[in-house]
Amino acid sequence: MQTDSSAHNKLLKNTLIALFPTLPIVLFVAFAGGPDHMAMPAPPPIVQDPWSVITSAGYTNYSNMYSHDGQTAIARLAIARSIYTHNDWRFGIEAGVQTGNTMRLEANQAAFDLLGSYVPIQTTVKPILDLLVTVEKSFVRTPIFLQGKAGMAYRRWQFNNINTVNDLSQVGFEMQLGAGLHINQHTDLSLLYQGIYGGNPNLAVNTAAGTGAVSNIPTQNGALLSLSTTV
Fold first, then answer.
1. In this structure, are 169 and 69 located in the same domain?
2. Are residues 77 and 172 in the same domain?
3. Residues 181-210: pLDDT tens digits?
């Protein structure tokens, strides 16, 4: 009888030792409510049709230019990619190129005389390159959305009819803000304010050398009508 009891105790001990490693799994399932109720990490959001082409036309005004020379029509072409979506929010990046403008610099006649120029100096802002971070907020049961973009724009300002003033390249802050309309699953139309920020050119003349220098590319403010199509 004692032999049977010892054998039973030994069997029970071996069984407990075998089951012990599975105890954490049993407790986790018990407290989590079973496999159907166990918390699983949410999969990352999937962005459908992440790439899009944006064509824009609009108007901009460069400050500190002669007469109405700073006012001009513009066109812009950009490639955009959506990176992340969360509920009604969409985040992405955008790279674009935009037309520049040929215009005359506003300055006093004394500065022109010192530089050997008897007419306002003709200048050209070359095509502009920009890289922007984009944010878009959609709304339930309406095709309207809000949109914001911010980043950096590279501009080069060239002086055409005088070689005694320096050309200038600068990277400045750019912002676009506005609203749009989802036309269909692949096409959006938006109207945006665009600002590319620089400063007053501050034309300075070196009277001894007969040369001039500008310190900033003018700020430009305008509007863009943009059509975005997914590809």
1. yes
2. yes
3. 999 989 999 999 999 999 999 888 887 777
**Alpha-carbon torsion 159, 73, 98, 175, what sign?**
positive
Q: What is the domain count for the chain?
A: 2
Query: Could you tell me the residue range of the domain that residue 66 belongs to?
Result: 51-230
- Here the tokens at position 74 are 């513009």
Tell me the C-alpha distance between 61 and 63, whole Å.
6
- Reported as a single tens digit per residue, the pLDDT across 58-71 is 999 999 998 899 99
Q: How far is 84 from 69, CA to CA, in rounded Å?
A: 41
Dihedral over Cα of 28, 29, 31, 32: its sign? positive
Residue 150 lies in a domain: yes
Q: What is the pLDDT of residues 104-117, one digit of tens each?
A: 988 777 777 777 76
